[in-house]
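Predict structure. Chain length: 397.
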Amino acid sequence: MRQIIAVAAVVLAGLLLAAPVVGQVEGEKPVEKWVDATGRAAGTDDKAKDEAIAQALRTAVEEGCGVFLTAQSKTEDYKVVYDKVLANAVGYVREHKVVNVTVVEGVTVAKVRVLVSTRKFEEDWASIAHTLQQENNPRVIVAIVESTFQSTSGPAFEVKESGVIQGKIEDFFLSKGITLMDRATAASVSKRDVLLAAIKDDVNELASLGARFSADVVVTGQATAKYGKELEIAGQILYQYTATLNVRVVQTDSARVLASKSFGPVTVNVLQRGGGEDKALEKLGNDCASQLLTAVVEAWRKRANVSRTVQVSISGMDFETWKVFKEEAQTIRGIQAVRLREITESLANIDVEYRYSNETLADRLTELKKVKLAILEITANRVKMKVQKSDQATQPG
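Prediction complete.
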């Protein structure tokens, strides 16, 4: 049985957009604030230092935007937006100065002075909430295949419906208000089929299978974990493993790649040879889950706020009718381009570059005066319509 996957953010979006935002006065300079923050990370090497500084920057952003966050925390599903915004914490840092770095009992401590842009933080918060609402709660399926090996060459990617990194990503999505579908089967396609398509990296097949799951988006990827080298630290032998992940976000009804991201390598050291691959994948999953969700939301935001390509299929349309349709459709506010892909047996396939939602586009097209159209189907990226004959067209009352 197919399950609908939805991002629970509609109420939150309305509350956030209705809430007053501090400092957003027309013509006013961006609000900036200096914050002192401390970050800690296990270890004493340069990597630990970088992690401690990164933690300090996130802490500074949280503190610098504290008044705004306190107000928003009272709203429903606050955490849904919180982690998506904070995943890009460094994006709100205008400038930072490392005051000092010390090591205490194997832990690196970094004290940092940070200039935080509170205006950008607040604007991004509202933008993400608005995007989730505007995209009509997109439905998602996650399919990540893994390859683990102990040498420089290894086996093909394995199909595991409960792989380590997929589990971490799905768990994170669940924790942020996304209800995931059954990991086993749907009415006409199984999750295994989607994973096999992920191995082949076949975008068109992934889109087709995702659509049969009633998903709007497929998050698909290939993760690799392998043995790196042997290390000796303070007389102790450690075995190093690294993991990487390549991900694509595919729109199911158009096979359009919305985002393509690479994560890693991340490294873990273990005391015994073997088993470190899963630990590396687990760490990678924890590290990349929030960034991956942010990438998905950003892809939706760009499509919603810049322009989107909507595939419009109109049956009963010949070339003469197409020319009339194009001339009138180009006058609709928000349409940036109307391009004919083909007309085959009176079926016209048209790409429309449009700034607003598909429902709005469908409404506007049915309001055309010279070519009367009726809606047959609407999806996230496609609108199917038909030309109404004059005796079928709705007459003014």
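Summary: The chain has a mean pLDDT of 76.
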